[in-house]
Amino acid sequence: MANLRDIRRRIKSVKNTAQITKAMQLVAASKMKKAQDQAISGRPYADLLNKVLVNLKDQTNEDSHPLLEERDGDRELVLLITTDKGLCGPLNTNLLRMVADQCPKASFVTVGNKGRQSISRQQKDLVADFQIGDPAGYAESKIVSEFLMEQFLENKFDTVKVAFTNFINTIKQDAMIETLLPIRPIDLGRDKDFVGMGDDQQVEAGSSDTGGGYIFEPSPEKVLDTLVPQYVNNQVFQMVLENRASEHSARMVAMKAATDNANDMIKDLTLDYNKQRQAAITAELLEITTAMKALE
After folding, report:
1. What is the arithmetic mean of pLDDT over 63-83?
2. Which of 88, 91, 109, 183 is catalytic?
3. Pick the CATH number of 30-251 from 3.40.1380.10, 3.30.200.20, 3.60.21.10, 3.40.50.300
4. Which of 114, 154, 185, 236 has CA atoms 20 to 30 A from the CA of 209?
5. Region for 123 from its dihedrals, namely left if φ exceeds 0, alpha if ψ lies in -120 to 50, beta otherwise
């Protein structure tokens, strides 16, 4: 009977766990829909802003703005966007592994507790850490992007990159590292999932698809001074949105898998319990029958 008690305790424990994971699945599903809508709704604006900047870049020279300046140094700053909480599958692990492989000597700015904790454990150079709420706000991400531009303009770093998880769909999320600064012509007009460009069609700089024929007032250079920082701000914000949508999607899938596994375990434990209980009843009947025959 002790074994039966142990199995009953395990069944009760697994049921409690299943209730928790089911609740977390429902919460993540609710947040996932909002985060996905927010990320997808920002893509058309990012697409148009990208096209305008492509056309504007074609009408100015290479030195029109300091954020376009190419440098020869190897000082690298990486904005690492991770989640604040765990229980979202291999989302953070895949991103951190990619960053370790591709940016071994970089300095870091982090958004999210998981990234900050990883950088601290590895004793790498952590320049700054920022917190962005859920749902993400443009004003919060703008503080981060302005800090990155400040570091680049003060010549503290030669390249600024962003490591984040790009939202593809509820099941698939891809870790990515994108160059943010300097803004390179090869990156402008290029098909990027995270800005929803072109429906899988690549757009070449200077092509008619970029909206050629814009007339800029007062001048392309003046417009560039306003548009380039806005482009950087929007890119960072869109990457934060993509990462947040990926987080809630991955957590919903992980919690659903955990709930399904718990339910399967409950079925197996219940079957074992019934087998042992039936065996115990059979043994008792055999003992009673044997005792009755002995008395005859």
Report:
1. 86
2. 88
3. 3.40.1380.10
4. 236
5. left
